[in-house]
Write a structure and sequence with these properties.
Chain B: GO terms for molecular function: metal ion binding. The complex is a heterodimer of chains A (881) and B (204). Chain A is mainly α. Chain A has 45 helices and no strands. Among the domains of chain A are: 214 residues, no CATH class; 149 residues, Cyclin A, domain 1, CATH 1.10.472.80. Chain B has a single domain, classed as Metallo-dependent phosphatases (Purple Acid Phosphatase, chain A, domain 2). Chain B has four helices and eleven strands, in the order H-E-H-E-H-E-E-E-H-E-E-E-E-E-E. In chain B, the strands form two sheets. Chain B has a six-stranded mixed β-sheet with strand order 3-2-1-9-10-11, covered by helices on one side. In chain B, strands 4-5-6-8-7 form a five-stranded mixed β-sheet, covered by helices on one side. In chain B, helix 3 links the parallel strand 2 and strand 3. The longest helix of chain B is centred in the N-terminal third of the chain and has 11 residues. Classes of the chains: A mainly alpha (881), B alpha/beta (204). The interface between A and B is large, with 37 and 37 residues.
Chain lengths: 881, 204
C-alpha cells in the first residue's frame, strides 16, 4: 500500500491522500534515494527537498527502513542545503541567512505534513525571489551561486534569465498568454492531420499524391523529420523514468518539430532534444510543486498563470526558442559563404592542422577558439599536450558546447550549471570558461596520459564532486579581478577505466591504434635508459643556453633540450612551488609547465637528501646552492654543473633502490603525481625521438637518391657517412640499442663515436646539431687529456663538455697566432686555400668540411679522413702550446 | 572531419528503436499476372508508389513470379499474400489479418463460385468471421457494404485480361484504418489518368 501511494503521489496524477500517508510517502521515497545515492554516487540528492525528490520515484529499490525518515529529514532540509551551498561570499551568505532565517521555521513545518504551512513557505519563497525592487539581480546572483538548486521557481527564474518573461512584473501574465497563443498557432500550422483535410480535391489530396499542396504529401514529408526527432527523443535521459512516458515524449517531439518547422534553415539537429529535456523537466518539477502547494490555499493569479501545468509544452517551446537563439549557430552546419570563397582563393597554410583546414563551421571555430586562445592563455602546458596528441577540440568540445555540457554531468548538477549559465547572461558566454574550467579540472590526469586515455577522459568526463567549484573557477577564469580565487580541485583517480573507454573509442574511430600505454612500473626502468639515450645529443646542442634561462625565472615555455645540469635544483624549486600552490590553490599551475624534458624531472625533492651523502666532496656543497632561490650563480662554472649532473645520474640509479627509505617528508601522493607527470614527459620524448627518426629517414632517403643519380666521384664516402647517419636514426628510433657504456667510458666513447661520425663530419655538409655533439666531445676530450685542466672533467660528460668547448673556442679566437701557424702547416701539407681559413677555426666542423673539399683529387678513404683528423688535431694543438 | 565527428557522436549516443508510426496505410492489390499477361505495373502507378508511405500490403494473389513478390517487398515491409489460381509460389489459401478493431479476411476469389457473387462472398465472410473481406480474381474493382460488412475487390493492378474480360481498368486500393472507420482510396487508371475515389466505411 505505501508503495502504491508513493507511486501515485510521485507520478503527480493524483495527490488526494491523507496527510499521514503523505508523511509515509516521503519517507519511502527518501529511503530509496538514500539507497540510490550510495549505489550510484549521486551527490547532493540527499540535500534536495522532498519536492525534488519526488522526481526520483523511478528508483525501483524502494525499501522502508526504520528510522529513515528522521535521519533523512534532518539532512534533507531544504534550507539547510542553501546554507551549506552559500559560503562563498561572506556578505552573500549573510544576506541569505537573514533572508532565510524567517522561512526556516516555515520550512520545518512544511514537512511535518502541514500543507497550510507548505503553502506559506511556498509563497514566501515566491516573495523572496520575485517581490523585490531589484529582484532580477537577486535571482541572477542566486543562480550563479547555485542557490536555485532547491528552488521551486527555477522555471520562472529561467524564464526571466532567458527573457521569456519581461522584467516588468505587471507584464508577466499578458506576455505569457501571448506566447502561449502564438505557440498554439504554430502548432496548428505545422502539425498536420491529413484525415482532417475536408473537402479538398481528391486528385490532389490522396495519400499517394505528390502534389506540393497536398496535406498528405506534407504529412509524409513531416513524417521523416518526425521520425528523426522521435529517434532521439526516445533516447533522452534513458535513466529517468519521467522521459520514458509517452506523453512527455510527445511533448518533446512536438516542440522540436515545431521549432524545426519554424526554422527551416536549421531544421532539427541532433542534440537539440538534450537542450529541451531539462527545460521540460524543471517546468514539470515546478508544476508539481505548485499543484502540491495550491492544494491548501489559493495561490496568487500570477502563480496560477505562470505555473499552469496545461501549458508546459507552450512554455517549454518559448524557453527553448529563446535558448536556441543563442545556441542555434552552434548547431548550424552551414559554412559561412564569404569565408568559403576566401578559403577557395587562398591555398591552405602549409603547416595548418587538419581542424583548421576544414570548412569553417561556427561550432568548430568556437571550440577551436576556446582551445587555441583561452586554454593557451590559462594553461599552456595542457594546450601543448593536447596539440601534441592531436586531439582536436571538436572531438569532445562539439558535444560539450552543443549540449551545454548536458552529457557531462548528472541532471541535478547540470541544472546547477545551467542556472549559472543562464543567470550570467543570455549570450551564454560563460560556456567558454566552463569549458576551460572542465579541462583544468582534469588537467593533471590529461597531461599524464596518452592519446587513448586522454580521449577516454574527455569523452567520458569523470564525475565531478562539486559542480559549483567549477562554476566559480569559470568565473574566476573569465574575470580574475572580480571573482574570488576558488579552491583548486583536481581530478585524481585510477585512469584505467578511461584508458579502456579511450581504447573503445579508438577502436571505433580508427583502425590503427597507437602504441600501448606505458605502464607506470616500466617508467622508472625505461626512463634511465631513455634519459641517457637522449642526453648526449640534447646536451651538446642547446644546453649552454639552458641554465641561465631556466633556473631563475621559470619562464612559461621551455624547449625539450633544456639543460639538464640545473635539473635537480630546478626541480626542487618546482616541487616547492607545487607545494606552495597546493596551499594557496592557484588556479593555473604555471610551475609545472616549466619542467624540462623527462630526464630533468626525475630526481624528486625527496631523493636529493638521500643521494647527496654518497657524492664527492664537490657535491656536498650543492645543497646550499640548491637552497638559493636564484641559482644563477653557478651556471657559468663547469665543475659545479658537472657535479650536478653527476649527482643527477646517481640519483636516477639510486632512486629505485632507496625508494623505501627516502619518503620521509614527502607524501606518497606527490611521488605518484611526479611519476605520472614523468610518464607524460617520457611519452612526449619518445614521440619526439620517433618523429626525428622518421624525418631523418625520409630526408636521408632523399639525399641518397640524389647522390646515386649524381654519380659523384666520392660517392662511397658519402654513402658511408649516410650509413652512419642511418645508424643514428636507428638509435633514435630505438631499434638499435645505444651502448650505455659509450657515455661512461671515455676511451670507448672516443673510439666508437670517432668511427661513426668522423667521416660524416668531414663529408656531409647537411648534418644537423646532433653531429656537432660528438665532434665537440671528442675535441674536448683530447684537449682535456692534453691540457689536464681539471680532474673533474674526466668524469664529466655532455654539459661541461659544451661549456669547455665554448671556453676553448673563446680562447682560440683570442689567440690568433696558432691559427696562423696551423694555416701555414696546412698549406705545406695540402694545396692552399687561404681566404677561407680564418673562418674555419671558429667552427671545427666547417673547418673539416672545407678541408676535405679542398683536396678533391686525393683518394677518399685515406686522404680526406686524414686531412680532417689533421685539422682536428690542428685546432687542439694551439692550446697545447 | 566534422562529418566524421558527428558520426562518432551518433554512434556514441545510445541506439534506439524507431518509434511506431501512428498513421498506417494498407495497400490492397492483386491479379498482377506478370509476366504472363502483362509486362508490369503501369508507369503512372509505379511513380505513385514511393517507398516509405505504405507500411503494409495485402495482396489477393496471382503475383505469378517471385520477382513480383520481391518488388512488392521493396515498397512495404509487411506483406500478406494469398494463393491465386496461377501462382508459382506457395502461399496460404486464405488469411485473416487483425488491424485495430477490424478483422480483415483475404482470399483470391477463384474458390468462391460464382466468381464475385455477393451471396457467396457473404457466406465466406461469415465463415471467416471478418469485418472486411477482400477478394480478387474478377479483375474488376468493387467496394460495397453488405449487411454492415465491407467487401473490397481491388481489381487488377496491371490491368491484365481475364477469360471473360479483355478491357480491364488497372486499379488498386489504399486503405487508411482509423479507430472505427476505414477510409479507402481507389486508384484507377482511366485513359492514362489516375482517378482517385474515396469511400468511407464505419463499423457499428
Amino acid at each position: 500500500m505505501p508503495l502504491q501511494a508513493a507511486a501515485a503521489a510521485a507520478s503527480g496524477i493524483e495527490y488526494s491522500l491523507k496527510r499521514t500517508q503523505c508523511r509515509v510517502e516521503v519517507s519511502i521515497i527518501l529511503g530509496s534515494i538514500i539507497i540510490c545515492k550510495t549505489s550510484e554516487g549521486l551527490q547532493n540528492i540527499a540535500r534536495e527537498p522532498p519536492r525534488r525528490l519526488l522526481q526520483y520515484y523511478k528508483y525501483p529499490s524502494v525499501k522502508i527502513i526504520g528510522n529513515m525518515y528522521q535521519s533523512v529529514s534532518e539532512t534533507s532540509h531544504p534550507l539547510q542545503t542553501e546554507e551549506q551551498e552559500v559560503g562563498i561570499d561572506p556578505l552573500q551568505s549573510y544576506l541569505n541567512k537573514t533572508e532565510e532565517g524567517g522561512s526556516n521555521e516555515n520550512g520545518s513545518t512544511q514537512h511535518t505534513s502541514d500543507s497550510a504551512g507548505t503553502f506559506i513557505s511556498y509563497s514566501k519563497e515566491w516573495e523572496e525571489l520575485f517581490v523585490n525592487n531589484n529582484y532580477l539581480a537577486t535571482i541572477r546572483l542566486k543562480g550563479i551561486n547555485g542557490q536555485l538548486r532547491s528552488s521551486r521557481f527555477r522555471s520562472v527564474c529561467w524564464k526571466l534569465f532567458l527573457e521569456v518573461l519581461p522584467q516588468d512584473r505587471s507584464q508577466w501574465i499578458k506576455n505569457t498568454s501571448e506566447l502561449r497563443t502564438s505557440y498554439n498557432k504554430i502548432k496548428e500550422i505545422h502539425i498536420t492531420n491529413p484525415r482532417k483535410a475536408g473537402q479538398q480535391d481528391l486528385i490532389i489530396n490522396n495519400p499517394l499524391s505528390q502534389d506540393e499542396g497536398s496535406l498528405w504529401n506534407k504529412f509524409f514529408q513531416d513524417k521523416e523529420l518526425r521520425a528523426m526527432i522521435e529517434q532521439d527523443v526516445t533516447r533522452t535521459f534513458p535513466e529517468m523514468q519521467y522521459f520514458q512516458q509517452e506523453n512527455v515524449r510527445k511533448i518533446l517531439t512536438d516542440v522540436l518539430f515545431c521549432y524545426a518547422r519554424e526554422n527551416e534553415q536549421l531544421l532539427y539537429k541532433q542534440g537539440m532534444h538534450e537542450l529541451l529535456a531539462p527545460i521540460v523537466f524543471i517546468l514539470h518539477c515546478d508544476h508539481q510543486a505548485f499543484s502540491h502547494a495550491s492544494e491548501a490555499a489559493q495561490p496568487s493569479e500570477e502563480m496560477k498563470v505562470l505555473l499552469n501545468p496545461e501549458y508546459l509544452e507552450h512554455d517549454a517551446y518559448a524557453m527553448f526558442t529563446r535558448l536556441m537563439k543563442t545556441a542555434e549557430h552552434w548547431f548550424s552546419t552551414f559554412e559561412h559563404d564569404s569565408q568559403k570563397e576566401k578559403d577557395a582563393m587562398i591555398t591552405p597554410m602549409p603547416f595548418a592542422r587538419p581542424q583548421d583546414l576544414g570548412p569553417s563551421i561556427a561550432i568548430v571555430t568556437k571550440v577551436n577558439q576556446i582551445q587555441d586562445q583561452l586554454l593557451k592563455k590559462h594553461d599552456i602546458e595542457l594546450y601543448m599536450h593536447l596539440n601534441r596528441l592531436e586531439i582536436a577540440p571538436q572531438i569532445y568540445g562539439l558535444r560539450w558546447v552543443r549540449l551545454l555540457f548536458g552529457r557531462e554531468f548528472p541532471l541535478q548538477d547540470l541544472l546547477v550549471v545551467w542556472d549559472a549559465l543562464f543567470a550570467d547572461s543570455i549570450t551564454l558566454n560563460l560556456v567558454d570558461y566552463i569549458f576551460v574550467a572542465m579541462l583544468l579540472y582534469i588537467r593533471d590526469a590529461l597531461i599524464s596520459s596518452n592519446y587513448q586515455t586522454c580521449l577516454g577522459l574527455l569523452m567520458h568526463y569523470p564525475p565531478i564532486g562539486d559542480v559549483h567549484s567549477l562554476i566559480l573557477r569559470a568565473l574566476f577564469l573569465r574575470d580574475p579581478k572580480k571573482n574570488p580565487r576558488p579552491v583548486t580541485h583536481q581530478f585524481q583517480q585510477n585512469l584505467d577505466y578511461y584508458k579502456a573507454r579511450g581504447a573503445d573509442l579508438m577502436n571505433k574511430t580508427r583502425a590503427s591504434a597507437k602504441a600501448a600505454p606505458l605502464n607506470i612500473n616500466k617508467v622508472s626502468n625505461s626512463l634511465l635508459n631513455f634519459g641517457r639515450k637522449l642526453i648526449a645529443p640534447a646536451m651538446a646542442s642547446g644546453s649552454t643556453a639552458g641554465p641561465t634561462a631556466g633556473a631563475g625565472s621559470f619562464p612559461p615555455t621551455t624547449g625539450p633540450t633544456r639543460g639538464t645540469a640545473e635539473a635537480p635544483q630546478y626541480h626542487q624549486h618546482q616541487a616547492q612551488q607545487q607545494r606552495m600552490m597546493k596551499s594557496e590553490s592557484m588556479p593555473v599551475q604555471l610551475g609545472k609547465g616549466d619542467a624540462p624534458a623527462g630526464d630533468a624531472a626525475l630526481p624528486g625533492p625527496a631523493q636529493n637528501p638521500t643521494a647527496l651523502p654518497g657524492q664527492s666532496s664537490k657535491i656536498s656543497s650543492s645543497p646550499s646552492i640548491e637552497s638559493l632561490p636564484g641559482g644563477r650563480e653557478f651556471t657559468g662554472s663547469p665543475p659545479l654543473s658537472a657535479s650536478k649532473k653527476d649527482s643527477f645520474f646517481s640519483t636516477i640509479s639510486r632512486s629505485r633502490s632507496q625508494s623505501k627509505t627516502m619518503s620521509r617528508k614527502e607524501s606518497e601522493e606527490e611521488l605518484e603525481a611526479q611519476i605520472s607527470f614523468l610518464q607524460g614527459q617520457l611519452n612526449d620524448l619518445e614521440a619526439m625521438c620517433k618523429y626525428c627518426a622518421k624525418m631523418m629517414n625520409t630526408h636521408l632517403g632523399n639525399i641518397q637518391e640524389v647522390i646515386l643519380q649524381e654519380h659523384l666521384e666520392k660517392e662511397d664516402e658519402i654513402l658511408v657517412s649516410l650509413a652512419g647517419l642511418k645508424q643514428i636514426k636507428d638509435i633514435l628510433k630505438g631499434s638499435l640499442r645505444f651502448n650505455q657504456s659509450q657515455l661512461e667510458a671515455e676511451e670507448n666513447e672516443q673510439i666508437t663515436i670517432a668511427d661513426d661520425h668522423y667521416c660524416s663530419n668531414s663529408q656531409n655538409k647537411g648534418t644537423g646539431d646532433i653531429l656537432k655533439g660528438p665532434v665537440m666531445t671528442k675535441q674536448q676530450l683530447i684537449s682535456g687529456r692534453q691540457t689536464a685542466t681539471d680532474s673533474s672533467t674526466r668524469e664529466s660528460k655532455g654539459a661541461d663538455d659544451c661549456i669547455l668547448v665554448s671556453k676553448e673556442e673563446g680562447s682560440r679566437s683570442a689567440v690568433p697566432e696558432p691559427a696562423q701557424l696551423l694555416q701555414t702547416f696546412k698549406e705545406s701539407a695540402v694545396k692552399p686555400e687561404a681566404p677561407s681559413r680564418p673562418l674555419v677555426f671558429s667552427d671545427p666542423l666547417m673547418g673539416s668540411i672545407s678541408a676535405s673539399s679542398s683536396n678533391l683529387s686525393s683518394s677518399p678513404d685515406d686522404n680526406s679522413s686524414n686531412n680532417s683528423k689533421d685539422s682536428d688535431f690542428a685546432i687542439v694543438s694551439p692550446l697545447d702550446i | 572531419m566534422v562529418r566524421c565527428c558527428q558520426q562518432t557522436e551518433r554512434q556514441l549516443w545510445k541506439e534506439g528503436t524507431r518509434p511506431p508510426c501512428r498513421l498506417r496505410l494498407w495497400r490492397i492489390l492483386g491479379d498482377l499476372h506478370i509476366p504472363h499477361r502483362c509486362s508490369g505495373l503501369p508507369a503512372k502507378f509505379k511513380s505513385l508508389l514511393v517507398p516509405g508511405k505504405i507500411q503494409h500490403i495485402l495482396c489477393t494473389g496471382n503475383l505469378c513470379t517471385k520477382e513480383t513478390y520481391d518488388y512488392l517487398r521493396t515498397l512495404a515491409g509487411d506483406i500478406h499474400v494469398v494463393k491465386g489460381d496461377s501462382e508459382s509460389l506457395n502461399y496460404p489459401e486464405q488469411k485473416v489479418v487483425t488491424v485495430g478493431q477490424f478483422r480483415i479476411g483475404l482470399i483470391h476469389g477463384h474458390q468462391v463460385i460464382p466468381w464475385g457473387d455477393v451471396a457467396s462472398l457473404a457466406l465466406l465472410r461469415r465463415q471467416l468471421d471478418v469485418d472486411i473481406l477482400i477478394s480478387g480474381h474478377t479483375h474488376r474493382f468493387e467496394a460495397f457494404e453488405h449487411e454492415n460488412k465491407f467487401y473490397i475487390n481491388p481489381g487488377s493492378a496491371t490491368g491484365a485480361y481475364t477469360a471473360l474480360e479483355t478491357n480491364v481498368i488497372p486499379s488498386f486500393v489504399l486503405m487508411d484504418i482509423q479507430s472505427s472507420t476505414v477510409v479507402t482510396y481507389v486508384y484507377q487508371l482511366i485513359e492514362d489518368d489516375v482517378k482517385v475515389e474515396r469511400i468511407e466505411f464505419k463499423k457499428y
